[in-house]
Amino acid sequence: MNNSLRRLDLNLLVTLDALLAEHNVTRAAERLHLSQPSVSVQLAKLREAFGDPLLLPGPRGMRPTARADELREPLRQALDALERAVSPASPFDPGKASHTWRVAASDYSESTLLLPALTGLRSAAPGTRLAVLEIVPSRIAKQAEQGEIDLAFHISAGAPAGLRRRLMFTERYVLVGRAGHPCLEKRPTLAQFCKLDHVIVSPDGGGFHGIADTALAELGLTRRVVLSVPHFLFLRSVLASTDLVALLPSRLLRDSGALQVVEPPIDVPGFEMLMLWHERSHRDPAHQWLREHIASSV
């Protein structure tokens, strides 16, 4: 830190600001709610610190020296900035906001969390922008810590430790195929389920084993997974146009006119969807508003 700052008490700068505004020790003392002798003592300390008289006697009070005139505006700006920095955070007004929020989400989270919140977000905060980033689970904690993302949506299993979290909902799986699929007119038996041709979403790419396969293996059974895709959007199109079937999170099927939905013949564990954010933004009014808006839209 600059040695000049080390020698100065912040209260002396506040007194100097009042003196430069009033050009009068008595009025400055009244403005600061101090006694006149106290302000006179502080003026003496300021003169010593700056090596300049700062204020000289004049016919109508006191007149500033050239050094004092140089200090007036920078000092006022610095004190204004400091006042803003230490003042309590002002309430967030979404109608006047111009924030750019950055959210990490999968296509599933985009459909089930961000899409329902988007219309209300645009209406309540029209001057804001939303950037949706492809989620990379291994990078969530670092991105949040460095302020690269404001929020991330991730299932509770494998969610990074050390981040604030909020449970958005608990999800379950259903069996899905095209509308009119001959094998889905009713809930299939376990043997029929295993004989169907299945498609699976593999976020890491190319995987042919999922939670259903783990559950089947415990029963000594297997199913036929013939297609692996990275995104749910493509999977829905595949199901609507082929005889392939899939286990899908139920919230993706809110609009399932082209698809047939039945309960699976095997108990497949669901998952908890979390909203994640860093401690650094936990108390920020704008961030709090965004979190509440998304949560209330689910």
From TrEMBL:
* UniProt keyword annotations, A-Z: DNA-binding, Transcription, Transcription regulation
> For the HTH lysR-type domain, which residue ranges apply?
8-65
Query: SUPFAM superfamilies per the record?
Result: Periplasmic binding protein-like II, Winged helix' DNA-binding domain
Q: Is Lipoprotein found in the keyword set?
A: no
What is the top-level taxon of the source organism?
Answer: Bacteria
Task: List the InterPro entries hit by this protein, alphabetically.
Answer: LysR-type_TF, LysR_HTH_N, LysR_subst-bd, WH-like_DNA-bd_sf, WH_DNA-bd_sf
Q: Does the keyword Cell membrane apply?
A: no
| Molecular function as annotated in GO | DNA binding; DNA-binding transcription factor activity
> What's this protein's family per the entry?
Belongs to the LysR transcriptional regulatory family.
Protein's name according to its UniProt entry: DNA-binding transcriptional LysR family regulator
The organism of origin for this protein = Azomonas macrocytogenes
